[in-house]
Design brief:
Blueprint lengths: L17 E6 L6 E9 L2 E5 L5 E5 L2 E5 L12 E8 L2 E14 L4 E8 L1
Antiparallel strand pairs: 1-2, 1-6, 2-5, 3-4, 5-8, 6-7, 7-8
Amino acid sequence: MTLNLSSNAFFELDDFAVKCQWTITSSQDKYEVIGIFDNTFYEAFDEFGSGVSTSSPQFTMKTDDIPDGGDEDDTLLIPITSKGRVFETLYKVKVIERDGTGVSLLRLQKQ
């Protein structure tokens, strides 16, 4: 049995997905994309063994929804809800990982 990970069921706005604005850096064209934003904080250790907090923001989306011409160094404007308010945060796409199942993971950098 084949599992279709790029199914719309994984990217429903009523569940975990959010609608974001993708801006192509070279042309400034803007597109709406839907995906799942994750910015989990975790503890890492520096060279002296001291704990430091960090995060690794990422956005998971259907590969087919990446805009034509979309590439690394483009930006995503992501709405983040905190305490009942929505704040838009700008991220730069640093890496696009296409996994071959129709889903891509975008590694992001906060701007």
